């Protein structure tokens, strides 16, 4: 850790040194490339004839264009270097970042921005606004041109297009040859299906999980956090699965038992019913 005055001095010195080094390296590279191109385009001495006035003017024009291009490229390089020089040095990890205070929250785990609708807190205000729009306000920002389904984020829209309207699945599992539209889906498939490593442990009960997302979902069972709100009633839920299952009850959809005439509002209830009332069917299927 360093004081603010020393931190400012170090930032200025490092930025100045980086500016000088990058400018010199970039200009030297441009000059070397330009000289190499000129050597390639020059004719061999034994084949050179009498050069007319028109050809001399043409060569001078080419040289002036080269100089102009060099100056333009050097100007662009200086702008890039200037942008890099405006970044500040993180005294915790040593990375150069544009917004130092926001970056430091990655290390301190500070989350100053609280959601007005649930107990979630965010490290950046922009992330909080996106959370409110997509989770609580359900603001649709993009619709599918093919099926007219609305989406609250461009990420979910892109996932929908690849999953439902893509003709080719690009990512194939090397173990079972199953194919997926997304690299992340293949990654999760490998972890959940072909790996048994559980390195994420709950700090409350010690139960191990395969992924961070699974651990975060489980940890809500130890807290009062309920980030998922029903659009039709005041009920809130800790998990996305419970939230989606509940919202189906407002659509009038019921799940019927194929072995008797009973119906249930939740799919989990019909599964429990089959295990209890029809154990022979469960034994047969297993």
Ordered list of secondary-structure elements with their pairings:
Elements: H1 4-41, H2 53-85, E1 88-89, E2 96-97, H3 100-108, E3 113-114, E4 121-122, H4 125-136, E5 142-143, E6 150-151, H5 154-164, E7 171-172, E8 179-180, H6 183-194, E9 200-201, E10 208-209, H7 212-219, E11 228-229, E12 236-237, H8 240-247, E13 255-256, E14 263-264, H9 267-277, H10 279-285
Antiparallel strand pairs: 1-2, 3-4, 5-6, 7-8, 9-10, 11-12, 13-14
Q: How would you summarize this macromolecular structure in one to three sentences?
A:
This protein is mainly alpha-helical.
Describe this structure in words.
It comes from Anopheles coluzzii. Residues 113-136, 142-170, 171-199, 200-227, 228-252, 255-283 form the C2H2-type domain. GO terms for molecular function: DNA-binding transcription factor activity, RNA polymerase II-specific; RNA polymerase II transcription regulatory region sequence-specific DNA binding; zinc ion binding. By secondary structure, the chain is mainly alpha-helical. Among the domains are: 93-163, Double Stranded RNA Binding Domain (2-Layer Sandwich), CATH 3.30.160.60; 201-251, Double Stranded RNA Binding Domain (2-Layer Sandwich), CATH 3.30.160.60; 254-285. 52% of the residues lie in helices and 10% in strands. The chain contains ten helices and 14 strands. It has helices at residues 4-41, 53-85, 100-108, 125-136, 154-164, 183-194, 212-219, 240-247, 267-277, 279-285; strands spanning 88-89, 96-97, 113-114, 121-122, 142-143, 150-151, 171-172, 179-180, 200-201, 208-209, 228-229, 236-237, 255-256, 263-264. A two-stranded antiparallel sheet has the order 1-2. Strands 3-4 form a two-stranded antiparallel ribbon. Helix 1 packs antiparallel against helix 2 and helix 9 packs across helix 10. It is elongated and about 85 Å long. 1% of the residues are buried. Residues 43-58 have low confidence and may be disordered.
């Amino acid at each position: 850790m360093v004081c603010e005055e020393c931190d400012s001095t170090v930032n200025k010195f490092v930025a100045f040194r980086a500016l000088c080094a990058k400018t010199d390296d970039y200009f030297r590279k441009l000059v070397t490339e330009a000289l190499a191109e000129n050597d390639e385009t020059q004719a061999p001495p034994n084949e050179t004839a009498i050069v007319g006035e028109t050809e001399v003017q043409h060569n001078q024009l080419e040289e002036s264009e080269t100089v102009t291009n060099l100056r333009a490229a050097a100007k662009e390089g200086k702008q890039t270097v200037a942008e890099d020089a405006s970044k500040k040095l993180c005294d915790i990890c040593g990375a150069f970042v544009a917004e130092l205070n926001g970056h430091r929250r990655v290390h301190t785990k500070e989350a100053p921005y609280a959601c007005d609708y649930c107990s979630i807190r965010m490290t950046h205000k922009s992330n909080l606004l996106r959370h409110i729009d997509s989770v609580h306000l359900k603001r649709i920002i993009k619709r599918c041109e093919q099926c007219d389904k609305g989406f609250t984020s461009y990420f979910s829209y892109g996932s929908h297009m690849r999953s439902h309207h893509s003709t080719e699945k690009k990512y194939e599992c090397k173990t079972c040859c199953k194919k997926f539209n997304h690299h992340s889906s293949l990654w999760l498939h490998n972890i959940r299906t072909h790996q048994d490593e559980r390195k994420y442990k709950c700090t409350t009960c010690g139960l191990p999980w395969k992924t961070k997302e699974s651990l975060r979902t489980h940890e809500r069972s130890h807290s009062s956090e309920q980030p998922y709100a029903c659009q039709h009633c005041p009920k809130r839920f800790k998990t996305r699965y419970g939230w989606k299952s509940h919202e189906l009850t407002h659509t009038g959809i019921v799940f019927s038992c194929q072995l008797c005439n009973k119906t249930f509002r939740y799919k989990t209830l019909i599964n429990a019913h089959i295990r209890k009332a029809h154990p022979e069917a469960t034994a047969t299927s297993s």
